[in-house]
Every structure is written in C-alpha cells, then in structure tokens.
Design goal:
The chain is of the alpha/beta class and 391 residues long. The chain is 34% helix and 25% strand. The strands form 5 sheets. The protein has a 7-stranded mixed β-sheet. Strands 17, 18, 19, 20, 21 and 22 form a 6-stranded mixed β-sheet that branches. The chain has a 5-stranded mixed β-sheet with strand order 12-13-14-15-16, with no helix packed on it. A hairpin with a 2-residue loop joins strand 1 (2-5) and strand 2. The protein starts with a strand and ends with a helix. Bound molecules: flavin mononucleotide. This is FprA family A-type flavoprotein.
C-alpha cells in the first residue's frame, strides 16, 4: 500500500509475466493494474480492481483494508476480473457503477445484489471525502467513467492517461524518470484507445471544469508533476494531430518493394525530413507500427501484389489503421507486381476509403525489379510527401 495523498492509497499490482495484453499487444516491460483505496471518516471505497490472476497480490496490498464500496470505472476484465473474489472476501462491499456497468457486472459475474447505480454528476459521501462520478463513455467501452475527489483535486481516470509498463518501485511520476513510459503511452493510446479520439475529446471538454492535481489511471504511473505534459499528449493524440515525420510501412518477399522503400527514405532525408521510421510489416509487431503512425504526420505504404491482391501483412496494417479512423495524414503509396498489378490499386483504394487525406495520393509502381521509371516515381513521391510534412 502506498500513499498518493492523505487518505488515498495505491494498492495495484504489477504483471511482468503476461506476454501480450489482450493477447495481441506485446508487454516487454509488463503492465500494472492500478487499484486505489479512498478512506473517508465514515466509509472506505476501493476504486477499480485487477485482473483475476492477481487477486492474491491485490489482497496483500490492501493490508487489511475493508472496503464498503467498490467503484468500477471500467469493466474490462483486466480491472474487473477480481470482482467475484472481492465479493466473497468482502460480502458487505457495495458495487458502484452506472447503468451500463451494472448490466455488465450482472452478465459477466452474475452479481445483481448489493449494487449501487449512480448517474452522471452524482456524488457519494465517504465522510470528509467525496466521490463524484463523471460518465465518459467509449474510453474505450460504453460504461467507462471517471471518479473525482474534489477535496484532494484527484481524478481516477480509468484507462485514459494510462500506459503499458509495470511500475518500477514508485507509483507517482514525481518519484521517477518518466521517459520510459512516454513511448509506452503512445503505444497504449494507439493500440487500445486510438479508435475513440472523438470520445476522448468529449471527455476532455467535459472535465475542463474540474481542477485536477493528480490523474490516477488504471495502468502506469499516477500523473502529478507531469500532468500538463501528459494531458497535452492525450489531447494531441485524440485530435489525431502528429509531429513532422514519415512512417514507411512495407512488405516484401524478394526485396524489390523493399528497395523502393529504401529509395524513398533516402530521398526523404535529402529533402530534410529527420524523423523517418521504416517498418517491414512482416517483422515489426503491429503494436509498434501503429504507435509510430499515430506519432508522425506522414505515412507511406508499399506492398507487392500477392495472389491478385495485397500482400497480407500490409493489408493487416491497413485494416488496423482503418479501424482506428486515423485522420489528417499526408499519405503516399507504392507497389510491385510481375504480371497483373493489384497492390498499389488496393492500397490507394483503402487509403481513399479512410479519408485520411483529401489530396491526391502520390504513388510509385514497378514491374519485377525496380525500373528507372519507378526510381523517378519514388524520388518524386518522397519530395511531395517531404514538402507536405515539413510545411
Ligand atoms: C505467392 C505469390 C503470388 C503472386 N501473385 C501475383 C499476382 O497476382 N500478380 C502479379 O502481378 N504478381 C504476383 N506475384 C509477383 C510479385 O508481386 C512480384 O514478384 C513482386 O515484385 C514481389 O515483390 P518483392 O520482391 O518485394 O517481394 C506473386 C508472387 C508470389 C510469390
């Protein structure tokens, strides 16, 4: 148990053994499932729980605390998995959530008794400390909400402002070097929350009226000293705003499409672009590709034609971008074929369907090896994208 501010403690756990979050996203530095205890003079509340396999650690960290309430800001099982166990340990504990939360509690865990339904803006008096609930749907499930403690200017934010990476000793950012967590925040946002930028913006605007000195998410450090910086990252990402730079994602079986990627990158450097990330879609995990795509404002995608379609690893990246409704990028495309060209056409079609950009998409295409014409096209594509991302 670690004190964050007077009467509010951290009781969360670190998971350093799960290899992939949601069985999809790599966790090379683990992940924390954050849970908190708020002690009023009359009652004690627990804010969010942990994943089912971590119950023992959670109970140990609670150090004998007897919660009267369990507030559920988010029902995803990495936070709610412990509910049935907690209910057995603390039968008196009332489960607090909004109408959508309680429907999920019933359908996941068969629990309908001793629950308290709260509405947007409602408060729960713990004695000297108040919990005020703000519904913030679709960050990133329909039931998500945040809980504010006005007396401490502290906001429990659910998954918002969270990041991958287990906690290394300290809980609050004031006590650590936060630099390892920043790339993990980009990755977490782009992988998990990225599709819901509009809803993140709605929540940010809704919560503008409250003053928060502490943001306590369900993953990663508590933000205090760097609160403004972290909020600005979230604000920017959820508006789909990006830094000048170009991500080149390509697939290649025999190196010809790859040669085009290298040519384009070489020219981008000559044009003055400094942030260039090249990803071979067959080798870089999608998690990291998405993270870079959310970070930079230029995106160039290339693939060989494969069985009259698009090379599958590149198609998977395009689908992931489409799902996340990415906006405002300067995009280019390139492709290769041997007898019947398809890949470039397909990349362009998908990019245009996404409304990623309003302008024509610059392209380059080659038949078999990289032809002189294709080289000229690659150079011109790079020049056009460089001019836009640096403008
Ligand atoms: C399994 C397979 C399927 C292919 N299907 C097509 C195709 O439908 N149409 C075509 O023009 N080329 C097709 N190709 C040829 C590749 O698109 C061509 O060799 C391309 O230049 C490969 O690019 P790379 O060197 O970057 O791997 C196919 C190649 C393979 C191995």
């Amino acid at each position: 148990m670690r004190e964050i501010v007077s009467c509010i403690d951290y009781v969360g756990v670190n998971d350093r053994t799960t290899q992939k979050f949601e069985a999809l996203w790599p966790l090379p530095q683990g992940v924390s499932y954050n849970s908190y205890i708020v002690r009023g003079s009359k009652c004690t509340a627990m804010i969010d729980a942990v994943e089912i396999s971590q119950c023992e650690h959670l109970l140990k960290n609670m150090n004998g605390a007897q919660p009267d309430y369990l507030v559920i800001n988010h029902m995803e099982p990495d936070h709610s998995g412990a509910i049935p166990v907690l209910r057995k340990y603390f039968p008196q504990m009332t489960i607090v959530g909004n109408i959508k939360t309680l429907d999920m509690v019933k359908n996941y865990y068969g629990i309908e008794d001793n629950v308290l339904k709260i509405a947007d803006g409602e408060e729960l008096d713990l004695g000297g400390l108040t919990l005020r609930f703000y519904l913030t749907p679709m960050i990133h499930w329909p039931e998500t909400m945040m809980t504010y403690v006005p007396e401490r200017k502290l906001l429990f934010t659910g998954d918002a402002f969270g990041c991958f990476g287990a906690l290394n000793g300290a809980v609050t950012d004031s006590d650590i070097d936060i630099s390892p967590y920043i790339p993990e925040m980009y990755r977490y946002y782009s992988n998990i929350v990225g599709k819901y930028g509009t809803f993140v913006q709605k929540a940010i605007n809704k919560l503008n009226c409250i003053e928060a000195n502490y943001l306590c998410p369900t993953h990663g450090p508590v933000w205090h000293e760097n609160l403004r910086y972290i909020s600005s990252i979230y604000n920017r990402l959820s508006k789909y705003e990006a830094e000048p730079g170009v991500v080149i994602v390509y697939g290649s079986m025999y190196g010809n499409t790859e040669d085009m990627a290298e040519l384009i990158a070489d020219q981008l450097v000559q044009e003055g672009v400094r942030n260039i990330r090249i990803h071979n879609a067959s080798y870089t995990d999608l998690s990291y590709i998405l993270s870079d795509i959310f970070k930079y404002n230029g995106l160039i995608i290339g693939a060989p034609t494969y069985s009259n379609g698009l090379y599958p690893p590149v198609e998977a990246v395009l689908n992931a971008i489409k799902v996340r409704e990415l906006k405002n990028r300067y995009v280019g495309a390139f492709g290769s074929f041997t007898w019947a060209p398809q890949s470039l056409k397909r990349i362009k079609t998908i990019l245009q369907e996404m409304s990623l950009c309003t302008e024509d998409i610059p392209t380059a295409e080659t038949k078999c090896g990289v032809s002189d014409t294709a080289k000229v096209q690659c150079i011109s594509l790079a020049k056009e994208i460089a001019a836009k991302v640096l403008s």
